[in-house]
């Protein structure tokens, strides 16, 4: 030990060492059989050769290997078990002989045997194995250790991937279904387009020469393609000689036999609703009804006592109930509401004798209809009322029908439009809206001769640029003219010639009636089906553009107009429509008979011409417009 530089002082080791242990042994001190094994980890064979010994760590399982030496096998099979020191709590592996009570077969054939661990108090499965093959576990081991973790990992991975794919699919579906734009919504009867039909002249289904309700049902695809939101049926009620005297109705609940019956009306209503088209009935009062009669205003308070109250106290609850005055009008409204009708245009109110009672009847009618149904009256009725009566009436009416005379000139149009925009019918957040009409059953046709075919298209496009709800009279979209009776064979119906039968494309196999039947009115001259595509595009543009279908810009502290007339002389009418964070549009209409070239750079610089098959850039420095033409331009920002 002195040769190793370690002190051999007995006082340091506190033990008595013999002299032979203090001195470093030499080779001669070993026994003869030990001379060849001077290395403590090497063993010698009888022939003197050194054979390395194979040792295994006390905590390492003994794995049999065919290439191992016999000494390795013996050492593995004769591993001692671990003795635990109770004083220190630590353990050290000491090689001892295998106890006799251990089965030899277990030692020989168990490839993963931990003989240094205690073999008592173990947990085994039904096959006598622990959670990791043949490894036994103590009884205090948690139960989750014995779970099938490979299977759990596979299931967890599958659930995770499935959830991830499902979330990705949901996100993709939401992105696909998102609308391209987010426009402000309005009630269905505000800002949209109505289509007015005289049923006897639209489509004949039974080949009797008179149009009917079933014929309208056959043309629903046409109405849907046109893009209208609702149809207005003129008088469908029975008269002594329908359709020649359709205005002289004898009942407000009986349909004219020429048009069909109640089942036909129900079927038409269902088909229209299935195509997202509403149906409105005209209710002509004059000359059938001359007085409105008394009305309580539609509401009264009904007081009821709460029976659950204390004996000395009681609670009175006030409920608003609808009062229905029993008269022909309310019975008519209730009757057709049950049939699924979506609104009414009450006509002829200006002729009733007790017009001062009208506001109270309007309250009653509107409460009867509800908020999702539309009530329309004519603007001329308001002039018959006092200021207070007019204000009360406007609070319970949805649309006011206003007729525009486009033949009066652009100056008169500007004056009328500006007057209406500043009147009691001016745009508001929840007030009445205007129902614009250019034609009707009591108006002459826009197309009066072949030279005014383009005028009809120009006027209709201008109408579709106005704020409010637009009403297109049947046939105006194709420039339908009045019945052509050169021989005066239908002189008795001359006052109805503007109600000429509808003309359909020659490519359409279904015409107004069959070839063997004459229509109830003579046919009109040729129409221009080329105009139809422009009307469809304009209605589609209106439906998707808040700048056009909204009648005002509603802010928290103010209501701003979104229409301005920029020019109204020399037969030129310029209408501009705007809306915040949306495209602005302008319509330039030339109602004159000559083309015009003008410089409009003081108002606009450039834009895109709409309604064409391709986007056409236009500059206002040298703006050209033909006679009887309307050009719709989307202004550049």
UniProtKB/TrEMBL annotation:
Membrane-spanning parts: 157-178
Pfam families according to UniProt: Alpha-amylase (PF00128)
GO terms under biological process: carbohydrate metabolic process
Classification via Gene3D superfamilies: Glycosidases
Compositionally skewed regions (Low complexity) per UniProt: 85-94
Span list, region Disordered: 75-94
InterPro entries associated with the record: GH, GH13_cat_dom
Keyword annotations: Membrane, Signal, Transmembrane, Transmembrane helix
Tree of life domain: Eukaryota
Glycosyl hydrolase family 13 catalytic domain boundaries: 196-542
PANTHER family: ALPHA-AMYLASE FAMILY MEMBER, MALTASE 1-LIKE PROTEIN
Protein name: Glycosyl hydrolase family 13 catalytic domain-containing protein
Organism per entry: Glossina palpalis gambiensis
